[in-house]
């Protein structure tokens, strides 16, 4: 019977299943533990990455070490999902004490408790006797991104008006908001001790022109030899002859005029005459012995009429909207000092005077255009018979030079650097017209690694962002004299600014500079403020595209612009189009698109908008 039982195969399926289930159940148990272990590891990594990015935001926003670590722990544990926080230990290494430098490192030690012991412990890497398995995970967020920010700020006269919905002047609101931004980013920069010049700011005040600083008069990128096609645009050196000025006259050789006569200083004699020459050799009566009528009779002491204020003319197209380096091999790329010609003494039939009559004309005859470009008047101090003061900024030959000088890129991670930038913001003064393209072009040049300003990092350097922040409270403006109730007897068709005159006396170009490079939408014979604005807007649009194509991030701010005003509505649209796309935020009206880095601000919202700009700049400093 026993032999029959062992040979009977009819009931062995259940027995075979029981015997087979032993290894099968072991495999299932191991698979369960392995799957759970992998899941917990991945969840830990996800939580570390999320906590790292969130904590990096806190660090660059200025959180102290204690708060940053506490925030990291809270954020990490909140994102663990199926992993018990009690089974984890988080270690946070902050950038300012990390030997590797410039990185936020989050490391988690996790204890995994297997469902099936002891096989799971042995098979999953443990040792005999263990009741759990430990593993670790690591996430690193690089904070070594550097920033170069140019504040291109409208300093036109309209900035003295009250901001919308506030009782404060726009200019005061702007200065406060801009300094707030510097403080916000400076606080972050001070945490980046392993990176030199981690955050730098330049300040570019603009109105009708931009001031590069009078200390740059002899810079290699300035036209010091009169080779630029702009140098003689409104000056007729041929009128300075030996016949009317026998001891101080000019002789032409090639395209330039050279100083001749005993009255010239040896440093100028036989050398090229330029606009700098006029500033240097113009004379006024500084002091004298006077008669009873206050007329100088003897002991006359002469002094300079004015010194160059630091403003330069806009380069001719296309260099006005490019970052092309200045080179003597291409004279049009050189920068020419502004010199506002003395305009006619005559008045028109409406008794309107010239916009910029700051000197006595000579000769008394001739057309008004001839009187305007006549050179001997600048070198004949005898024309004046009384003591006269020197001209300063935004007057005389410096008319339309109303802004303070550019502040080049300055490291704000130091107290001295941040203070310097904020002092430059405070020193700004509001006066004059609005030339946004010229301001933006110079903002770009301050970010560039090439001259005129060379403080910018190489354009090829990874991890560095160059940012232009452009703010204006008005449309681009360039005026006809008549629109300002002055005469235009000389036929210049505009007041003088960084764009020169619309119709200069002596030019190699087909049109005035505002019209160069513009489309058929801009009439070349329409001498009106509206048409000038249209031309400037076209240059601005092309400049924006050029800057963005060079990987410059453009942020634009329209301050108190009125969308019901045609010119201002066009400026709002142009500023928005000019702006770059955010790398981090979506358009709230269309989540499929990135948000434009454009702010339509009022005086009341300006501070909050600058704080939002600061947050956007903070995001740029995080590279996971």
UniProtKB/TrEMBL annotation:
Positions the record marks as coiled coil are none
What name appears for this protein in its UniProt entry? Pilus assembly protein
Q: InterPro entries in the record, alphabetically? A: Tad_N, vWFA_dom_sf
- Is Ligase one of the keywords? no
Q: Where are the transmembrane segments?
A: 12-32
Organism encoding this protein = Mesorhizobium australafricanum
Q: The organism sits in which domain of life?
A: Bacteria
Question: Which segments constitute the Putative Flp pilus-assembly TadG-like N-terminal domain?
Answer: 11-58
Keywords, in A-Z order:
Membrane, Transmembrane, Transmembrane helix
């Amino acid at each position: 019977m026993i032999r029959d039982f062992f040979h009977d195969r009819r009931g062995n399926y259940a027995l075979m299943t029981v015997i087979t289930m032993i290894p099968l159940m072991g495999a299932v148990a191991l698979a369960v533990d392995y799957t759970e272990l992998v899941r917990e590891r991945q969840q830990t990594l996800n939580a570390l990455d999320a906590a790292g990015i969130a904590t990096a935001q806190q660090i660059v926003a200025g959180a102290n070490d204690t708060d940053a670590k506490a925030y990291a722990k809270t954020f990490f544990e909140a994102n663990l999902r199926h992993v018990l926080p009690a089974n984890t230990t988080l270690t946070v290494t902050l950038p300012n004490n990390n030997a590797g430098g410039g990185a936020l490192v989050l490391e988690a030690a996790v204890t995994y408790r297997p469902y099936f012991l002891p096989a799971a412990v042995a098979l999953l890497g443990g040792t005999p006797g263990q009741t759990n398995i430990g593993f670790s995970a690591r996430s690193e967020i690089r904070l070594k991104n550097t920033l170069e920010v140019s504040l291109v700020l409208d300093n036109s006269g309209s900035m003295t008006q009250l901001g919308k919905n506030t009782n404060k002047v726009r200019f005061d609101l702007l200065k406060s908001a801009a300094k707030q931004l510097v403080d916000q980013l400076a606080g972050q920069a001070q945490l980046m001790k392993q990176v030199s010049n981690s955050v730098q700011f330049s300040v570019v005040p603009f109105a009708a022109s931009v001031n590069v600083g009078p200390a740059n008069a002899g810079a290699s990128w300035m036209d010091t030899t009169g080779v630029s096609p702009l140098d003689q645009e409104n000056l007729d050196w041929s009128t300075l002859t030996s016949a009317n000025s026998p001891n101080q006259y000019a002789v032409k050789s090639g395209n330039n005029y050279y100083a001749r006569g005993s009255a010239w200083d040896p440093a100028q004699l036989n050398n090229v005459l330029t606009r700098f020459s006029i500033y240097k050799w113009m004379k006024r009566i500084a002091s004298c012995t006077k008669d009873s009528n206050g007329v100088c009779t003897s002991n006359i002491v002469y002094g300079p009429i004015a010194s160059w204020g630091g403003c330069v003319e806009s380069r001719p197209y296309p260099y006005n909207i490019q970052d092309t380096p200045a080179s003597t091999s291409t004279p049009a790329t050189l920068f020419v000092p502004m010199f506002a010609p003395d305009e006619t003494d005559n008045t028109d039939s409406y008794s309107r005077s010239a916009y910029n009559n700051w000197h006595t004309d000579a000769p008394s005859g001739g057309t008004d255009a001839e009187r305007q470009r006549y050179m001997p008047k600048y070198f004949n101090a005898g024309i004046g018979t009384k003591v006269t003061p020197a001209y300063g900024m935004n007057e005389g030959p410096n008319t339309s030079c109303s802004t303070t000088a550019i502040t080049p890129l300055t490291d704000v991670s130091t107290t001295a650097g941040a203070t310097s930038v904020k002092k430059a913001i405070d020193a700004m003064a509001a006066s004059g017209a609005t030339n946004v393209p010229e301001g933006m072009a110079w903002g770009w040049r301050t970010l560039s690694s090439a001259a005129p300003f060379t403080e910018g990092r190489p354009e090829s350097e990874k991890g560095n962002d160059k940012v232009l922040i452009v703010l204006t409270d008005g449309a681009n403006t360039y005026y006809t004299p008549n629109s300002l109730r002055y005469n235009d007897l000389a036929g210049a068709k505009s007041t003088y600014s960084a764009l020169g005159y619309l119709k200069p006396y002596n030019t190699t170009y087909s049109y005035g500079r505002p019209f160069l490079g513009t489309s058929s939408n801009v009439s070349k014979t329409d001498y009106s403020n509206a048409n000038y604005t249209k031309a400037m807007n076209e240059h601005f649009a092309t400049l924006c595209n050029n800057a963005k194509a060079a990987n410059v991030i453009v942020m634009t701010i329209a301050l108190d612009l009125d969308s019901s005003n045609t010119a201002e509505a066009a400026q709002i649209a142009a500023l928005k189009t000019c702006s770059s796309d955010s790398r981090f935020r979506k358009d709230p009206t269309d989540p499929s698109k990135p948000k434009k880095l454009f702010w339509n601000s009022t005086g009341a919202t300006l501070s909050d908008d600058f704080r939002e700009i600061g947050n956007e700049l903070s995001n740029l400093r995080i590279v996971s």
